[in-house]
Design brief:
With about 450 residues, the protein is of the alpha/beta class. It is built from nine helices and twelve strands. Helix content is about 35%, strand content about 20%.
Length: about 450
């Protein structure tokens, strides 16, 4: 054999040896790539499971409803076409504990060379529904401008919020909700007569006091002081006037409307009575259904009576103490317009010409109502009450800023159309569920 042929033979041996040694190198490189893909898929799986678990945890409903929503939330957070094919996505609900788990298969690219076609990853998590109690009051605009679609949408949204927080139960051991329908006056209920000055000094005709009250004089119209310091409330009484409110033109007979709210009579535009804090879902749903639009707008009255309802102090004492670590207090204040004051509508501050707000100028009076709302909001927040505000189709920038600053923070202020109300109330309901990711 020549030297040349020997050299060729040796070179051939080297080439074969290099090819054989490259196989494990390629396998190791492929292993790194495929396991990197698997790690990415597992991270996506864990993130989607946690997001779906937290979202479902904010919803009350039957297990079937929760399962359906869980799958929807998971798929929304684990988009198709990405790395990994998920399966065995499981939700288990046990009281306040929600467990989630799932798997995903990741197709390999390089490990197929050694017969491994896919890698399987898995993840699990646990969400705990906090058992911390909640006192919530909804102060809802029942003014005349809410007539029609706005009131329909409000009733739907408020009903949904109650159902979200109560779930399938008819009562709750940790939840109390109250409602304050407001216009330019608030109805505290005829059962609160002990906190009202005498109604006997008025001629009620063939009707009786319906429960609405006048505003206290400043500064007691912006606080929760006792009758010992702030005094009792005067009954709301819209006397007969030049518009023949409730006598005929010859003042010979009454033309009173005893509906709630009435269109004529001493209780004209008095809205349905507020609902003190209760753990009875049916009571709340009935109160929502009974809401009717009438009258002008005094947003500050809705806010201050929401505070008085959520307070542990009289005239309503159902609320927990402010410093109770086991309970959160929250107020949802919703309106569709600006504060108004005129000589055509008798309100909790009487007529504009009566000067109860220290002025007979409408713009100044309305500005003073705005100032009172700011004071009430500041007072509530100083007590640790979480305040949500909702402006429905409000266009006045001053009112928008007023409501935004009233909220505990900008994330708790909502500007919405009537059609958006349900979504807004759902968002608030989820936030009030107080969830935390356990592990």
């Amino acid at each position: 054999m020549s030297d040349t042929s020997v050299l060729r033979s040796r070179r051939g041996n080297v080439a074969v040896m290099f090819a054989l040694s490259a196989v494990p190198v390629l396998v190791l490189a492929g292993l790194a790539v495929d396991f990197g893909q698997a790690y990415t898929a597992r991270a996506r799986l864990a993130s989607a499971l946690d997001a779906a678990g937290l979202a479902v945890g904010s919803i009350q409903g039957s297990e079937a409803e929760l399962q359906s929503r869980f799958q929807q939330f998971f798929l929304a957070n684990y988009a198709a076409g990405k790395i990994g094919t998920p399966y065995d996505i499981v939700l288990t609900v046990n009281g306040n504990q929600i467990n989630v788990s799932g798997k995903a298969d990741v197709e390999t690219s390089f490990l197929k060379l050694v017969g491994v076609d896919k890698l399987t990853v898995g993840s699990s998590g646990e969400v705990i529904r906090e058992t911390k109690g909640l006192d919530l009051v909804m102060a809802l605009d029942n003014t005349g401008s809410m007539a029609g679609n706005k009131m329909t949408q409000l009733k739907t949204a408020a009903t949904d919020l109650v159902n979200i927080l109560f779930g399938s139960g008819s009562t709750s051991e940790t939840l109390l909700i109250g409602m304050v329908p407001f216009s330019d006056v608030v109805n505290i209920g005829t059962g609160q007569s002990a906190y009202v000055t005498s109604t006997a000094v008025y001629d009620w005709g063939p009707s009786a006091w319906a429960g609405c009250v006048a505003a206290r004089s400043a500064p007691y119209d912006t606080d929760d002081s006792s009758i010992g310091s702030g005094g009792k409330w005067a009954p709301f009484y819209w006397k007969d006037d030049s518009n023949n409110n409730w006598y005929d033109s010859n003042r010979r007979r009454y033309t009173i409307d005893n509906a709630v709210p009435s269109s004529k009579g001493p209780n004209k535009y008095c809205p349905p009575a507020l609902t003190p804090l209760t753990n009875n879902k049916t009571t709340l749903l009935n109160a929502i259904s009974a809401m009717q639009p009438a009258g002008n707008t005094h947003i500050n009255l809705g806010a201050v009576w929401a505070w008085r309802v959520i307070s542990p102090d009289p005239p309503f004492t159902e609320g927990h103490e402010y410093d109770d670590p086991k309970h959160t207090k929250a107020v949802v204040l919703m309106t569709d317009g600006d504060n108004t004051m005129s000589n055509s509508v008798f309100t909790a501050y009487a007529y504009l010409s009566d000067g109860k707000l220290g002025t007979t100028n409408s713009s100044t009076a309305e500005s003073r109502l705005d100032d009172r709302l700011t004071t009430v909001c500041d007072n509530m927040k100083a007590k640790g009450i979480v305040v949500y505000t909702i402006a429905v189709e409000v266009t006045n920038s001053s009112t928008i800023n007023l409501l935004r600053s009233c909220a505990t923070d900008t994330g708790k202020y909502f500007s919405a159309s009537a059609a958006d109300l349900t979504a807004v109330f759902h968002t608030i309901g989820g936030a009030l569920s107080n969830l935390r990711l356990a592990k």
